[in-house]
Amino acid sequence: QVQLVESGGGLVQAGGSLRLSCAAFGGTLTASAAGWFRQERGKEREFVATISWNSGFTFYGDSVRDRFTISRDNAKSTVYLQMNDLKPEDTAVYYCAATISRSQDRGFSKIGDYDYWGRGTQVTVSS
Question: By C-alpha distance, which of 99, 95, 94 is closest to 114?
Answer without folding.
Answer: 99
